[in-house]
Design a protein that fits this description.
- With 194 residues, this protein is α+β, with helices and mostly antiparallel strands.
- The chain is built from three helices and four strands, in the order βαββαβα.
- The protein is rod-shaped.
- The protein starts with a strand and ends in a 6-residue tail after the last helix.
């Protein structure tokens, strides 16, 4: 028995529908099977041809009615008898595998191209980062020079402070000596000193 199924929907392409159907057909050991992505009036369509004994065909039709990939959006499923040639299941498997491999190669090439673009961007970012690090190094060098000058200034201030302290101590000692001498003279002259 040969049957043609048409599965229509907003999203039946690119969701693994043909592989989903093939796996079940293979599990039922169907004699013939093929599935193609088609379009009809702007709507996505999966056309399925399958061949087997009555039990296989009715089981496969029940599967098609009740199961589809998670991401699929199915709006209609129809079946009709078919009297044309149906591709052998093993032949479809080989052809479908080649189709899927070529899609995989295309995807890998796209990924590789995007990866190259990302690496170029990363290289540009690293160059900018290197420039920023160089600027940061220059800023740190300036900061180190400023800290050295600050240390020198602090040392100079300590020296000035030490010199000033020594000078003030001598001056206070001299003033205290002069005050003591003035007090002594006032006492000698008979006055009173506080």
């Amino acid at each position: 028995m040969k049957v043609r199924a048409l599965i229509r929907g907003q999203r039946v392409h690119g969701v693994g529908y043909r592989n989903h159907l093939f796996s079940e057909a293979d599990g039922l050991c169907m004699d013939g099977f093929s599935a193609r992505n088609l379009r009809e009036n702007g709507l996505q369509l999966v056309g399925v041809l399958f061949e087997g004994d009555d039990r296989q065909v009715s089981s496969f039709m029940a599967f098609i009615r009740s199961s589809w990939p998670k991401a699929a959006e199915v709006s209609d499923i129809s079946f009709e008898e078919y009297d044309g040639r149906v591709e052998k299941l093993t032949r479809f498997a080989i052809r479908f595998q080649a189709i899927q491999l070529s899609k995989g190669v295309e995807s890998i090439l796209r990924i590789e191209a995007k990866q190259d673009q990302m690496l170029e961007k990363q290289d540009r970012m690293l160059e900018k980062q290197d420039l920023m690090l160089e600027k940061q190094d220059r800023m740190l060098e300036k900061q180190d020079a400023m800290l050295e000058k600050q240390d020198e200034t602090v040392e100079e201030l300590r020296g000035v402070r030490s010199d000033l302290k020594e000078h003030m101590e001598k001056r206070f000692a001299r003033i205290e000596g002069e005050i003591a001498e003035i007090k002594r003279v006032i006492r000698e002259l008979g006055g009173s000193c506080v």
